[in-house]
Amino acid sequence: MSAERIPISNVYYLLCYAWRHVEERDLVGVDALDELERVQDLLATVLVQGTFRLVRQGIDRGYRDVQEDLAGIRGKVDVGGTVKRALRSRGRVACAFEELTLDVPHNRILRSTLSALLRVRDLDRDVRASVRSAYEKLAGVTVVRVTRRLFDQVQLDGNRRYYRFLLSVCRLVHDLLLVDPRSGEHRFAGLTDAVMWKVYEDFVIEFYRREQDRYGVNRRGRTIRWAREGTHEDQRSKLPRMVADAILEADDRRIIMDAKYYPEALGGPYGGKLRSDHLYQLLAYLRNREATEVPGALHEGILLYPTVGAAVSAKVRLEGYRIQARSIDLSKDWKDIHRDMLRIIA
Predict the structure, then answer these.
(1) 109-163 pLDDT, tens per residue?
(2) Which of 202, 263, 287, 305 is the most buried (most CB within 10 A)?
(3) Is the dihedral of CA 30, 33, 34, 38 positive or negative?
(4) What long-range pairs does 306-315 form, CB within 8 A, spacing at least 24?
(5) Average pLDDT, stretch 210-238?
(6) Is the distance from CB of 303 to CB of 323 less than 8 angstroms?
(7) pLDDT the model gives residue 263
């Protein structure tokens, strides 16, 4: 399924859940997003509104180390440097001090991303004007080449959630940007299936973790051990890891959910059959988890597909396990998507 068929406002909600920033989703007006059609305009609009919000609340500052020759004394005097450069004869002293500045790594990433967006050729005209305005609001912040290492240098405390949200947007922008080495022109690759597959998986986990309280949902405890009795010790390391997309557990029910972001949910010559490889994978999860984690506990499986304007609903029983194939129509209003996600596990 192509991401281009999903309404932009719903793409935004998927990203907010996937990044674990649901609290920040309403800080961007959905009405403004409904008028957009392309992901680059969505991400640019989010960064613009986020920048304006930071300006209103106060842009974050940090201390940086400065070494400078001054007429007076500030901070620590560098005696060696003062003598070596004969600064005293010119009435100056080498000083080392800390300076409070806007020019910190997270602000550099934000302004540099806005700068990159200004070089994107197919950006909406009105969006481009807003990006330029936001870029100018960050005057004094250095524009740098954004790398993954630069993201790693950012240190934010728990009170900087909104900054972390904006940096998630910045990271996605740079992941999707393609730069022509000759012309320097920037263009967007779009949300590829590989990107959307990960976003969809993370959305499913976070949605069920946040939006219901009947089941426990552990983001980290999704690895399923093999029932490997009889396998020699030196051969066990050759077995691949089994990691379910989501495991929902209550006292009376245990669900292994596999989120499948596929162009077409059903296969076969006429597109009406459940996909055999999906069923085999889910059955392996069910068998091995029941045998190794919770012996005797009843497990069931759900294959959850995203669709646009279509529905998938199938219920089968295989090897004693109840298995469903269900779909979420991502073209619907978000309130309806929210309701349908909860109905699937009801």
Answers:
(1) 999 999 999 988 889 999 999 999 999 999 989 999 998 888 888 887 766 888 8
(2) 305
(3) negative
(4) 306/1, 306/6, 306/200, 306/261, 306/330, 307/1, 307/265, 308/1, 308/5, 308/6, 310/265, 312/265, 312/266, 314/274
(5) 82
(6) yes
(7) 79
SS3 130: helix
What token pair was written down for 263? Answer: 């162009």
Of the pLDDT bands very low, low, confident and very high (cuts 50, 70, 90), residue 314 is very high
- Cβ(96)–Cβ(76) under 8 Å? yes
Q: How many CB atoms lie within 10 A of CB 183?
A: 9
State the Cα–Cα distance between residues 267 and 279, nearest whole angstrom: 12
* DSSP E strands, the chain: 62-70, 76-77, 93-101, 177-179, 186-188, 216-217, 223-224, 242-243, 246-250, 253-259, 299-307, 313-318, 321-329
Burial of 117 (0-12, 13-18, 19+ CB in 10 A): buried
Residue 270 has pLDDT above 70, yes or no: no
Q: Give the residue among 233, 344, 228, 234 at the shortest CA–CA distance from 288.
A: 228
Which two tokens mark 142? 């250095």
Tokens at 97, concatenated:
């001090």
Backbone φ and ψ for 63, nearest 5 degrees, come out as: -95, 140
At a CB cut-off of 8 Å and minimum separation 6, what does 37 contact?
Answer: 8
What pLDDT score was predicted for residue 133? 96
pLDDT band at 20; cut points 50, 70, 90: very high
Tokens encoding 17:
């859940």
* Cross-strand partners of 303: 258, 325
